[in-house]
Structure formats: C-alpha cells, structure tokens
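### Sample
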Amino acid sequence: MYQVDLGTDPATGKRLQKLQRGFDTKKEAEAACAKLINQYSQGSYAPPKKLLMHELVDKWILSKKKIRDTTLTKYKRLLKNHIIPALGYIQVSKLPDEHLNIFYEQLKTDKNLSSTSINDVHKLCKQILTYAVKKKFITDNVASIVEAPRLNKKQIQIWTYDDCRKFLDHVKEHREYVAFLLALTTGMRQSEILALTWKHVYFDRNTISVDQTLERGTSALDPKVKSKNSQRSIRVDYETMLELKKQKKRITKEKLYLGEEYRDFDLVIPTTKGTPINQRNLLRTFYRYMKKAGVRQIDFHDMRHTHASMLLQNGANPKAVSERLGHDVRTLMETYAHIMPNIQEEIAADFGSAFYQKKTPEKRNAK
C-alpha cells in the first residue's frame, strides 16, 4: 500500500491525495508511488474521474469518425452482448486487471465463446481504455497489462480435387452454383463473391476485379474491401468464365420476366428478385449439398484454403498466390505452413538434380 499527497487540484481547490492498495511487495508499492509522483510533476497525471464504463463507451463511439460500418457494427455487437452487461457500471478508474481476467474466463466457461471472439473483446477493451488514457480520464490502461487470451487456431480443412468435383456435380443445377465455383476456382471470400457485380467481370480479359463486399448479416453492399491488399484483380480460367457467361444469360432472363419488380443491383449472384443473397441462406445450401455429395464437411472459407493449397502444391509462386487471395506474403506463409514442408522438399530435390547434374565429358583431341 502507498498513500501520497500531491498538493492542491487547481481546478477544484481540493487536496489531491492518492491511496493505492493491492501490491504484493513493498518494492512494487514504492515503484508505483514514484511513478505517480513523476507523472504529477511532469503534468501528465490526471485525477481519476467518476466515469462509468458505459459512459466511456459512449464517448469513445462518438470519437470514431473514420471507421468502416462493418467494423463499427461488430464493435457494437461485442459491446451490447458482452462488455456492457459485465463491465458497464464499473467505475473506469477502479477497474482492476483481475476483473478483466475473470471476465474473459466467464466468456469462455459461461458463454462458450471461442478464443477468437474473446480475443476480439480484449482488443476492444484495450482500445477503449487507451482512449480513456489519451483523454486523461485515467492514467493507466489495465487491459495492457492483462495477458491476451490465447488463440486456439482452428485446423484448416481442405478438399481434394475429387471432393471438389463431387460437390460441384451435385450442386451444378442450383442457382447459387456459381458462388461455390468462384470460391473454389478464385479463392474469393464469401462476402466478396456475394457483392460481385457484372461491371467487375471482364469477359474480354478473363479477369474479375474485387472492389466491394457484402456486410455480414445484412443485404448492404460496402464499397470497401477488407484491406488494401484485398482490392485486387483475379485472372480466371476459361471454364469458369464460360459458367459466368451462362449465369449472365440466366440473370438477363429473370430481369425480363420480372420487369419492374426486379431490383437490379447488377449482382452476379443475386436472389430471383435481384437483391443480395443472405449469407446464412447460402450456407444452408452449402451444407445441404455437401451432405448429398458425401464429401468431407468443411466451412465455406475452407474452399478458399482449398484453392490456395492447390495452387501452392502445384508449384505456384507464393507471392502470386498471396496477391490472388488478397493476403500479404507473410500471412500466406503462416496460414499454409502445414503444406510448406512438402513444397520445400520438392524444391530441394529439383535444385539438387539440376545443381549436381554431371556434365557431359568433353571429347579429347586425338593425338
């Protein structure tokens, strides 16, 4: 424990006294006291304000001017479902790091949240409290001293070529067939596929331009992509382009049939009325046809992993693959490290056979 008198608060005229308990050793208490005195002498110490966590959240949200709608929607969901119910009425200046650790453990045991979701909650708490420090509502960010929940990365599942053919054969007559085909032949994300418009399909060049996404859980098209790398041009194989041409003819017939009732978003894979497809509906179709085809059960995103793995196993340049997927090379190597040993073995074998190849003996001149 330490107690220190910091003089008079010029704003209120009251004495500034700070009492802090909970240290394991006297040395820790002395170090914290010295830090506080140093902050006060340099003018960086702000007396704690009786600000509740939910009030801080309101201020923080108002400060977020440059943020994507999809990101803000995600933040609000985490706040509403988890952070505010558990921490909303705690005074920010009195929030202990132990409380955050208990909170994260409850998210895991009581709410059965994944390690990824708990990590997202931790990052958001840290971001909000960083804002509080910047605004001098508090002096320290307790979330920065709390160890981030360990991520349990899900094992990537991929299909074989045979799995891909079986699934596509079974789903071929479904109107959403092209969505699954694009996932397997281009590695596009689900949100990118459902937001793809005809103006971004270049039949003369056999390319697709990825420039927007469909917001998760909504029918709103976001004229932004996940990151700078995600905005890209993808070269498409001849057979896939043929399927896209068939899809365009099908959509044109539907437009003519519905006339003014058709809501034209220019989408490559719309509903029968022209509107964006609900992502959950697409997933229902995906899981139903996987079962019919009798192939390994994977997530929709694993079709993207399947495409990338096939490219790498076929000897494609990792940089070209990363550009195709909208990754940076480092992310690509980390994500697909499980297939890299085989690739490295093949590279080493090819190099060795070329490097140590015996030269044809030169013919000696006859004497």
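The beta strands are 2-8, 15-20, 201-202, 207-210, 213-214, 221-222, 232-235. This sample (Tyrosine recombinase XerD) is used throughout the tutorial notebook.
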